[in-house]
Amino acid sequence: MTDAALAPLLVSQPASGSAVTTERYPVRILLVATAVVFLVLFLLLPLAAVFVEAFRAGLGAYFAAVTEPDAVAAIKLTLLVAAIAVPANIVFGLAASWAIAKFEFKGKSVLNTLIDLPFSVSPVISGLIYVLLFGAQGYFGPYLQSHNIQIIFALPGIVLATIFVTFPFVARELVPLMQEQGTQDEEAALSLGASGWKTFFKVTLPNIRWALLYGVVLCNARAMGEFGAVSVVSGHIRGKTNTMPLHVEILYNEYNFAAAFAVASLLALLALVTLVIKISLEWRYADQIAASRRH
Questions:
Q1: How would residue 6 be classed by pLDDT, with cut points 50, 70 and 90?
Q2: To the nearest whole number, what is the mean pLDDT of the chain?
Q3: Which of 69, 112, 254, 290 has a 20 to 30 A CA-CA distance from 14?
Q4: Whether the Cβ atoms of residue 118 and residue 168 lie closer than 8 Å to each other
Q5: Is residue 157 within 8 Å of 187, Cβ to Cβ?
Q6: Alpha helix locations (H) across the chain?
Q7: What would the mean pLDDT of 75-90 be, rounded to a whole number?
Q8: What's the confidence (pLDDT) of residue 293?
Q9: How far is CA 221 from CA 78, 102, 176, in A?
Q10: Arithmetic mean of pLDDT, 124-128
Q11: Residues 101/211, Cβ–Cβ less than 8 Å
Q12: What distances in angstroms separate CA 292 from CA 37, 95, 139, 209, one per listed residue?
């Protein structure tokens, strides 16, 4: 192709650092403004309203609401459930993503589809499933009662329901990344004599650690804030099986709005702390994160 023929194509290419979109400046301003207004109206204002209502009655009332025995029990139970459910989902997410991304086997597409099942099933239904299985009139209920094992209306049922609704988060962060990275690094490590476990800890895990972190953050936030499934299997026993979201509901239904918003603000604060940790790690290790994504 001659230089004369190439000239129009060269002119049409955007200069380095210039915008690659063709929208006019007013259109771009409108799009940005729409996004900002949406975030303010549907995210920032409701979140701010929670904290305003929580402190409306003063600091004394706030601390009294979050330190009374039922609230303390709900906080402890929420943290305990998250401490059990999140590591369990890390194990499942790593195993499922490793199997899907690194191996070919019958039923691979079925496994990949089943990971998304909690996204399509109502949390209430997932809670009812465990009641059907382990409740007093369920399939395994008589056997469990005869051996003095209680799952429904106790910690095990809450943990099982929480694991069910949160197990896709880690796997869904890891599977696309591991599929994109392929198996070349693992094959090279194995060819050099590394064992399977050493290959995983020295090669695979460092390459996926940031995606794993994102999955853990999302899983933890959902585990602490889960309501529907936990509500079905918990029995709403104050001071024993009420997590923080359930305790907020009880306080709100009793018209104890100050205490309800106080506990809700604490739950929101836990989520914000998790988000701040994630953002700070992104900021501090930005170069490493970008390198792992290019890998």
A1: very low
A2: 85
A3: 290
A4: yes
A5: no
A6: 3-12, 25-39, 45-54, 59-67, 69-102, 108-114, 117-120, 123-134, 141-146, 155-166, 168-181, 184-191, 196-199, 205-225, 228-234, 244-253, 257-284, 286-294
A7: 95
A8: 55
A9: 11, 29, 21
A10: 92
A11: no
A12: 34, 20, 47, 9
Type of residue numbered 176: P
d(CA 248, CA 280): 30
Tell me the C-alpha distance between 172 and 114, whole Å: 11
Cβ neighbours of residue 96 closer than 8 Å, sequence gap 6 or more: 111, 115, 171, 175
Q: How confident is the model at residue 295 (pLDDT cuts 50, 70, 90)?
A: low
- What tokens were used for 181? 């990275």
- Mean pLDDT, to the nearest integer, of 72-87? 95
**SS3 (DSSP) at 218:** helix
- Name the residue among 282, 114, 88, 102 with its Cα closest to residue 190: 102
- CA quadruple 112, 114, 118, 121: dihedral sign: positive
* For residue 86, pLDDT beyond 90: yes
What are the phi and psi torsion angles at 107 (to 5°)?
A: 85, 10
Instruction: Copy the structure tokens of residue 68.
Output: 């009374």
pLDDT tens figures, 53-70: 999 888 999 999 999 999
User: Shortest CA distance to 196 belongs to which of 61, 102, 72?
Assistant: 102
